[in-house]
């Protein structure tokens, strides 16, 4: 994989944006540990409303190959079983992982797309990682996906370089670090981390479902 090849504006390159996040955003690659509970600033959610009996929190990155594997293998069934039925509130929390500049740009575009299209962008970015991981230009992928949800090229560039958005990503990454989250993907069910030792694609759906069903069964 090569570095992000070109600047997205004349004023700032995407590499500079990644540097602006600092060390707090660089959680080490596709494994995780730590704890988290309660609502957090900037949460993006699907399914049941806040305050529901079971909340599933996923810390993930659009540039993490394990996150992409989990999505490919488990998301459709998880969504059908728990999100579409409003059995759980699913919360997604952004953790930019290497290459951080691409992750930051992707998250900025997703948020600019709006809440109704946020997850469409996130899932599209995960499913197209191979385009730039195999030598392609990530800029092409980012802009194509942004265009696909109705954003113009000018709007995409403005989103990617928005200083308030960058600061918000940095704050969310720092909050995750303070909570002890060390990588992606990391899952919590009602504040308790769920792991599958030895898994090559994150927490298994079987283990996640067991934790969810145990919480749903409580009086």
Automatic annotation (TrEMBL):
The reply on keyword Secreted is no
The protein, known as: DsbA family protein
* Secretion signal, residue range per the UniProt entry: 1-28
Q: Which stretches are transmembrane? A: none
Per the UniProt record, the source organism is Brevundimonas kwangchunensis
One Pfam family this sequence matches: Thioredoxin_4
| Thioredoxin-like fold domain mapped to chain residues | 41-201
Give the keywords, sorted.
Signal
Q: What is the lineage of its organism?
A: Bacteria, Pseudomonadati, Pseudomonadota, Alphaproteobacteria, Caulobacterales
